[in-house]
Amino acid sequence: MYFDNAATSFPRPESVIRAVEGWLRAGCAAGRGGHAGAVDAALLVQRCRSSLAALLGVASPRQVVLTSGCTESLNTVLLGLLSAGDRVIASELDHNSVLRPLAWLERTRGIHLDLLGFDAGTGLLDALQLEQLLDAGPVRLVVLTHASNVTGRVQRVSELAALAASRGALVLVDAAQTAGHWPCSLDGLGADFLALPGHKGLCGPLGTGVLVFREGREDLVSPLKFGGTGTESELLAQPERMPEKFESGNLNMPGIAGLGAAADWVLERTPELLRANLVAKTDWLSAELGRISGLRLLTPGVPGEICGIVSFVVPGLDAHEAAMVLEQAFGIRCRAGLHCAPLVHRALGTESAGGAVRLSVGEFTTESELAQAVSAVGELAMVAR
Ligand SMILES: Cc1ncc(COP(=O)(O)O)c(C=O)c1O
């Protein structure tokens, strides 16, 4: 039983599997060149970009950059935008794919970083603190996670982003836990830059990701990598045109074939329906686990606002030990530890317990699996007592 969808989704839609296999069997180019295979590949990339643009509410598919994952998308903005003296606001909810590049930029470029806290009860970022930090002086960038990968709580990003924009700060949204199975549009979120993986809520292949630039914002960001784009090859300077500016080197064509199929799969079902399915499962799991005596839930009890994640601590039991028992005795695959988000655990005081156990559901998680997970955690908690 797979309960690690927040890391990467499993299983994947048949159409995604067929698209990857189809490309591996018949594909022979990365869309750069003049022969028929290259033209086919270019069309496939174009279709993928158009489907993603439709899904993310982006008028021009050229603003959709294909990356290797959410980490590359986030790093592209952070490393390409920020320079000495810039003030940046991120938060304790952020993943290491935000915190580590920012720590490196603090050390090597002299940026100034402030971290927003969150309310342990509601899981929400502190809007008042954001306002105070914004009022303390000019801020170049605010990084907002759409949903914590530890608590699962979806944030009120549009309100926070509007606050940032009103003070002239740019906004980078990390939609790693929401994109695909939760409505995410550039305008809806109020983002200048939107980073997301292709392999979680979208159910595409691992090794795929997306970075969306609001029109014109690409001019503010230098590329992370430079190289061949198949265009303007006579120039030694990196093309400024989108999306080539950020897409050097041969593209991940099997991944893009699968990602395009995944975006079409989501568009067909609609993110609203996927969200409703996800919320029904998450809320049920959270409510049932909440009834288990002695278990400490880190996921707030706010029905309709949690995206697929329920995390908990079994008092007296290290998180890794608990996950090992869940797998070995009950066949449940889940994720234990700090989930690459150490500051959430520091704030919640769960570091000494080895972090937490995270169960994360997806579109293919069944009712029977949910019931078995609840019963397994119940037995585990009873033994630990
Ligand atoms: C909140 C958050 N941001 C970023 C990432 C990094 O995503 P990727 O694995 O696609 O690089 C993750 C992955 O777990 C995440 O949960």
Automatic annotation (TrEMBL):
The keyword Ligase does not apply. Keywords: Pyridoxal phosphate. Pfam families: Aminotran_5 (PF00266). It comes from the Bacteria. Residues 1-370 form the Aminotransferase class V domain. This is Cysteine desulfurase. The keyword S-adenosyl-L-methionine does not apply. InterPro entries: Aminotrans_V_dom (IPR000192), PyrdxlP-dep_Trfase (IPR015424), PyrdxlP-dep_Trfase_major (IPR015421), PyrdxlP-dep_Trfase_small (IPR015422).
